[in-house]
Amino acid sequence: MTGTRRAVAALFLLPALVLLGALVVYPIGYSVVRSFLNTAGDGFAGGANYTALFTDDGIRTALKNNVIWVVFAPTVSTALGLVFAVLTERVRWGTAFKLVVFMPMAISMLAAGIIFRLVYDQDPDRGVANAVWVGVHDTFAQSSAYPKAHPGRQSPLRAEGGGFVTVSPVRAGRPVALPLVGVAPDVMPDSARPAAAAKPEPGRVTGTTWQDFTRGRGVGRLGAPDASERGYAGMRVEAVKDGKVVASTTAAANGTFTLPGSADGARLRLPASNFKEPYNGVDWLGPSLVTPAIIGSYVWMWAGFAMMLIAAGLAGVPRELLEAARVDGASEWQVFRKVTVPLLAPVLAVVTVTLMINVLKVFDLVYIIAPGSSQDDANVLALELYRKGFAEGRPGVASAIAVLLLLLVIPVMLFNVRRLRREVRR
Prior knowledge:
Helix content: 40-55%
Radius of gyration: 34 Å
CATH superfamily of the largest domain: MetI-like
Order of helices and strands: HHHHHHEEEEEEEEHHHHHHH
Strand order of the largest sheet: 1-2-8-5-6
CATH architecture of the largest domain: Orthogonal Bundle
Low-confidence stretches: none
CATH class of the largest domain: Mainly Alpha
CATH topology of the largest domain: MetI-like fold
Number of strands: 8
Largest sheet: 5 strands, antiparallel
Structural class: alpha+beta
């Protein structure tokens, strides 16, 4: 090349070099210099800022969480992308499925964080995750309809073992009144009907358990069912003698119940299962689950990215190799494991390395999804950099964290560059 052509090439490259220097080289150099200065930036701090990386509890938690992110988020995203790419080749609606899986990539991290903050909401009426979890739980273990019920004034019941027991033994032929209060009228089950006084039956213990409360001062009779009061439908009643349950039943819709003659002389017990608090789901954003929950939202966003790259690589796999393996008697699992995956290894490496670099910088999802009470437990290096630099006013430590992130990314980038060069030589 002549010198003139070199000068022209340099002129064409100059704008890119200026932008690269202003947006990449200068910030990196300034961060390295700033990491050795004190908080005010007017004095040399030596290695104090870097010492904080290993002594500060917040930074150590962030580093631990970053390790979890780097290990699990890229692995799960790549694995799901591989499964989706392979399976969608075998269905007619594969393109539509790919579109749906890839669609979250069009959503910003901010929007995705807001979405999953609602998905993981503790209230089952708002959070989709807990709505599903509570629905499955209640299918197998129904919660009580009377968690707040308790004896009122002049009640024949006393508290015992989480439930309530009659003070005196009951007798056959004498109806028993088991009044309770504390359940709001609007949360009474739909099956509850107006309470009715039980009728005596020879040789049997009968009674009524109901909501002994009528709106309005001086209205209604205490200890006796009134027309506006409703029975505790489905309330379990047990007859206990010498610590053993000798008979049990459940109250009808109007609160009445009947026990056999074996209950004569026993104490009646309303067991604790009648007053069990409703199951409220899982604390997804609590200290123990907040990091896996946020990783789940990341996988939701990036599995489509992995799927599309792997699907592109899969399209270039020679079909004759797959057919030859099937002709030789290999099962579909063996073809997938011993032929498809090895042929896709370069693509899988690209996807995994790209996602590893990406998760080292994750900030938006953690900042938005994790509530203030568990943000310390979900902390990552990028978030800790922001907190140290802006919330706590320690730019020196923040710069040291930035340098640490750079040092963590460089080996991954070098691995990717070397792998790309090997591919070019082939």
